[in-house]
Amino acid sequence: MKKFLFLLWAVATAALLADSFFQHFTSEKSTFVSDASAGLSNEYKEIEYLDCSGGKFAADDGDSLYCDGNSVRIVGIDTPETMRPEYGIATNQPYGAKANAFVLKTLRAAGKITVVYRKGDLDRYGRLLGHVLVDGHLLAPMVIRQGLAYEMITRFGDQGFPEYAAEIMQAWNEIDKPLPFENPHDWRVQNINRVVDCSGSNYKSDDGDSLFCSGEEFRLNGLDTPEIIHVKDKIWHDQKLGRVAAAKGHEIMLKAKKAYVIVTGTDKYGRTLGWLFVDGELYASMMIKLGLAYETVTHYPSPRYPEFDKEVLEAAKVAPLQGFIPPYLFRRCEQKGDCVREALMDRVPMEVVIPAI
User: Fold this and answer.
1) Measured between alpha carbons, how far is residue 160 from residues 40, 221, 271, 317 in Å?
2) What pTM was computed for the model?
3) Which residues is 273 bridged to in the sheet?
4) For the domain that residue 204 is a member of, what is the CATH number?
5) Which of 84, 304, 95 is nearest to 191 (CA)?
């Protein structure tokens, strides 16, 4: 009898514990679903979530971020651009840095960050299209209320999140307009440049300040390296350190994992003008710091790219003394016979010319 009563007590206790555990689990799960799916239309069921809490994020600019290894484009807003040369954005749009700073500050102060998105919903750059919830609150309206974003619902619709879209539009209708910066879409149309990929074997170096890439001949902005023989240009001698600069430029490109040119125009010889970036660094600054180039932005500034000009000038301040005269003086001597003594001294004797790489 005692064994029977003990067995009965054990079964009842186990049942009570199981019921308690079930109530606790379903309560927790219900709370999570309620937080993460608040405002979602019942029409869309394939909703997925990314947890970005605990520092698993990085703000790219005001309307995009990286979350746990995923690139996310925040739906419903468009913030002013920040400089990203790899995408052809060569300068900051006004208020771009401020928008980025606000989003970063908001994310850092959050206890819980969740990205809500529809499965397989990507933009043309492969980024997830999603909404960001910061401690249960939608981030996009916060950015709008700071006067740091245009709404994008009118242009792209609710994209499967009608209640979130309504919240964004409510914030947009509440703020004073016009905003103090141009619509980022219009700004991009005017300011984004063509970018040419010169990575891997997709290039051929000429001298230190020009190269062939993707079927185009480029004259690189910001620098002037010593000359090497170009008969078609009436350069009959190598200039001192000309071959060294050409070889160094070739070495830099050969080691590069990523190289691209931001196109800016065409010079009088029909060559494409552009800023070369090698693994994120400005090539002109690299060569100037090595003492293998003179800067050219003092005489040929780039009004649309003040950040690049500034970087080149900073490089020139710390560069060692060049062991050659300014190449334009050498060219004048070669092409026109107008030679200063230093230009004649910079000529490399023909018998010691090293073949171009």
Assistant:
1) 8, 46, 48, 54
2) 0.67
3) 219, 265
4) 2.40.50.90
5) 304
Q: What is the pLDDT of residues 288-299, one digit of tens each?
A: 999 999 999 999
Give the HSE-up count for residue 62: Cα atoms under 13 Å, Cβ half-sphere. 31
pLDDT tens, residue by residue, 74-87? 999 999 999 888 88
- Is 29 a member of any domain? no
What integer is the mean pLDDT of 235-241?
Answer: 94
Task: At 118, list the tokens.
Answer: 């529809």
Domain boundary among the residues 130, 163, 191 is at: 191
Residue 13 to residue 2: CA distance in whole angstroms: 16
User: Which residues, other chains included, contact 51 with Cβ-Cβ below 8 Å and sequence gap of 6+?
Assistant: 68, 112, 113, 114
| Tokens coding 117 | 């998105």
Q: Answer whether residue 301 is part of any domain.
A: yes
* Total number of domains in the chain: 2
Strands (DSSP E) found in the chain: 47-51, 57-61, 64-67, 70-74, 77-78, 113-122, 128-134, 137-138, 150-151, 195-197, 203-205, 210-213, 216-220, 223-224, 259-266, 272-278, 281-282, 294-295
Cβ distance 217 to 230 under 8 Å? Answer: no
